[in-house]
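Before relying on records like the one below, remember that each one covers exactly one chain. Contacts with other chains, cofactors or solvent are not represented anywhere in the record.
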Amino acid sequence: MRRLLLFVLSLTAAPGQVLLRQSGFCGCDGDWTPWSHREDTLPRTFVDTKVSLGDAGSLAVSGASKVAAYGGWQRQVAGVKGGEWVRFKASYKADNVAAENWQVVARLDWRDAKDKRAGEPDYVPWARRAGDWNELSLEAQAPAGADAVTIELLLANAPQGTVWWDNISLERIAEPAPRKVTVATVNLRPRNSSGREESVAKFIETIAKSVPVNADVILLPEGISVVGTTKSYAEVSETIPGPTTEALGKVAKARKAYVAAGIYEKEGATIYNTAVLIDRNGELVGKYRKVYLPREEVEKGLTPGSHFPVFQTDFGRVGLMICYDVFFSEPARYLANQGADMVLMPIWGGDENLAKARAIENGVFLIASGYDHPTYVMDPLGERLSQATEQGTAAVATIDLEKRYKAKWLGEMRTRRIKELRVDVKAPMPGLLP
């Protein structure tokens, strides 16, 4: 038997109260209604009784062979007041949709007492695969003046596509606790080192002198094993794990902090410019091989990497970039697309304006440790929260990864950008003239 759990409304509800929970649809209750900006862009909306996750029926949206089709299902939930926090969840399954990130849209459109838009809508950017279905979840704060929220479950410009929605819920929650992380990034350029070991030792000495004991993350620059020496990349290259990761691991374990740094990795006959991340126990979390190599490094025998990993830590997701990566938009974008809260960037020298742009366009904290590039902690709006201008010092800042950074007219771009990013448009081959 189909079971339909109707939403509960309350103007004085406490956190944890369910506002809406529904699995199973028959199209007979009228709470969910079709929606589009214009009648002629309305996709086909229907209840599919053969597709569901739980109780029979799901909310389906089909492009109906219309290139301009944009819309789907909506339902308004009253009594959500400005300042309150809610958690929205839904599951969807899509077929013949080229770019789910922007063509499958779930968002919360906040409304005031006159049913006018109150603040910018909140998009649900993150999904996890769960078999044939995908699970969405978002925690959001109702903007000032909100009196209700309209849940929108849409399909955008996918003429041959279909999306099914099920397991939909909305509940009040307590304001999320801050995710505070103390980050320290070191400004040091060793001189006249005899070799790799001496240069690395100078960085470790600087950590002991300049980094506070409560630091959760410690960042060192690019190429700490070659800077200040007269050695070649090949001469200082090593395996990972190897001598340098072992030395940094001891620091990480003693300090109970994550440590990241750039070194040169040798794998067989191949040498990479690599950044490593070590956890609080001194164990290697992972490594990133620099994808964008300048010709100067290529001509000295280095080989580029081929992917942009993101690493899970006990405080959030961390991505790594190295130096020349900052001149290109893809590295930071690919890390942000995978949910990176913070990007650690060991760097020799690079364009400060482009570094600022990478933080702003992706809505991430950018932490830099450099030689000819400044050493700083930058927030998602491109503001430097701390900067180390003198040799042998560290820029230190405590940041809150739970804080939302909203642009005045556009809302929170970290999530909005992901939902509007066009990955389905094929880029022309660079350098090939039409």
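The chain has eight helices and 24 strands.
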